[in-house]
Amino acid sequence: MKNKSPKVAVVGAGPMGLAVAYELTLKGYKPEIFEADNRLGGMAASFNFDGLEIERYYHFHCLNDHAFFDLLDEIGLKKELKWKKTKMGFFYQNKLYKWGSLNSVLFFNKASIFIRIRYLLHALRCLTIKDYSYLDKISAVDWLKNWLGLKGYYILWEKLFEYKFYNFSSTISAAWIWSRIKRLGKSRKYLVENLGYLKNGSLELINKLEKIIIKNGGVIHLSNPVLCINPIKNGGAIIKSVNKTDIYDSVVTTIPIPLLTKIFIASGIDKDVIKNYEKTISIACACVILKTSKKITDNFWTNINDNRYSIPGIVEMSNLRELDSYITYVPFYMPEDHPNYLKSNANLINEAWDCIKKINPNLEDKDLISSCCNRYRYAQPVIGKEYKKTLPSKEPFKRLFTVDTTFYYPEDRGISESVGFGRDLVRKNF
Ligand SMILES: Cc1cc2nc3c(=O)[nH]c(=O)nc-3n(C[C@H](O)[C@H](O)[C@H](O)COP(=O)(O)OP(=O)(O)OC[C@H]3O[C@@H](n4cnc5c(N)ncnc54)[C@H](O)[C@@H]3O)c2cc1C
Q1: How many Cα atoms within 13 Å fall on the side-chain side of residue 181?
Q2: How far is CA 344 from the centre of its chain?
Q3: Which pLDDT score, from 0 to 100, does residue 4 have?
């Protein structure tokens, strides 16, 4: 066990911040964690929705989320991890099609047989690529157009990009979309999609980590956003938060880089350092949640290609997790300065419900029991070509580590990736 006296601050208590703090306590440190929100969990946090404790944003796990499984095993939660065979759908030209399986793609008669075969070959190819370096240099849109042809791209992919990245769509790297397709593709047993979930949602993981961190001497400051970080020449930094100013020998920030950039600017950090942070762009998410008296479809995930709605898909959580009610997430992704982001929650809920009634015309307004909308400003980083080159340094100042979900590129943001990356950072640097 190391000397316990060095003081360590962790900024942000999402899955990564909590994993960093947990790993530090295993090494004998007693970290102080600063969290802006009034609850732990970041994007994976839960809230009470009409009597049901659920995540603000939908979460599922894949068969290859190894860092997540290792952590669950270690903290005694492995038995809470459940698996389910899930279905996918595709809503196109006012009709709901089956999707995601070999047969569903082969029988999708809205695209030519050539497109269908090319789509399947591309999905297969994604599973066999080992060296992604060439994908790093090309755009996802160009790569998909090459594989599927223009028509195939417009039917099957265009809206998914448009309603997630808007004007950034053409800049997204092929390596990013490849890693997403591969993650889901590998979450199949005998070709059937198998997705996982914690019996009581991500809250179970968050609560358990909190308990262990506190038991091991860590301290958690909720509702205490960090305002300034001033690096110290010999290492560490002075942290000024809403309720406290103190000196730390080491600091790990896990908050989204665009937020850290603002803190660095407020702290008067050298412009030459800040310019490396300013390149990170992130898309916001306004996520509608609906509780209904009837199922919408049998699918967990339904992709949508419909010009009437700026919705890339819906996620029926109650077709994955065993819940007492029918719960559906409808994400609206968009850049913060897009007019859609100014729409009120009520407006977005109306659009979501209207779209869902088109998917399942048997639904009537009386079937909508309750609704809400949560927003996360920095929800999806825009991963451009040769992304690694645009990332700022992991340790721009001695013993001040600045990381977030973009640092595990080409993997997309995910709980497994965040906890794995956070733990690894501590193992290598403390
Ligand atoms: C709509 C949506 C769906 C998702 N679906 C899945 C899924 O199915 N499966 C999956 O594995 N992952 C999914 N994710 C991603 C997953 O939630 C994230 O990858 C993970 O939560 C990231 O954790 P993190 O700790 O790295 O970052 P975050 O969760 O962003 O945590 C950062 C924390 O920093 C805090 N913070 C910000 N500013 C300050 C400050 N100044 N001072 C102190 N604290 C601050 C924030 O409040 C937050 O708690 C999804 C995310 C979204 C938005």
Answers
A1: 21
A2: 23
A3: 52
**Is 1's pLDDT higher than 50?**
no
- In the block, which residue shows the tokens 């208590």? 13
**Same-domain status, 298 and 324:** yes
Two structure tokens written together for 206 = 């968050």
State whether 272 and 287 are in the same domain.
no
- Residue 33 maps to a domain: yes
- Nearest-angstrom CA–CA distance, 327 and 236: 45
Q: Please compute the mean of the pLDDT values over residues 224-248 and round it to a whole number.
A: 97
> 215 and 158: one domain?
no
| Ligand 1: lining residues by beta carbon, under 6 Å | 11-17, 34-37, 42-44, 57-60, 225-226, 254-256, 259, 263, 285, 287, 331, 376, 379, 404-405, 413-416, 418
Ligand 1, pocket-test mutation among 179, 255, 282, most atoms within 8 A of CB: 255
> pLDDT tens digits, residue range 284-333?
999 999 999 999 999 999 999 999 999 999 999 999 999 999 999 999 99
Cis status of the peptide bond prior to 410, with omega within 30 of 0: yes
Residue 225 banded pLDDT, cuts 50, 70, 90? very high
Side-chain-facing half-sphere of 341: CA atoms under 13 Å: 16
pTM of the model: 0.96
Structural domains in the chain (count)? 3
Out of 162, 188, 214, a domain closes at: 188
Last residue of a domain, one of 155, 188, 221: 188
Residues 374 and 298 reside in one and the same domain: yes
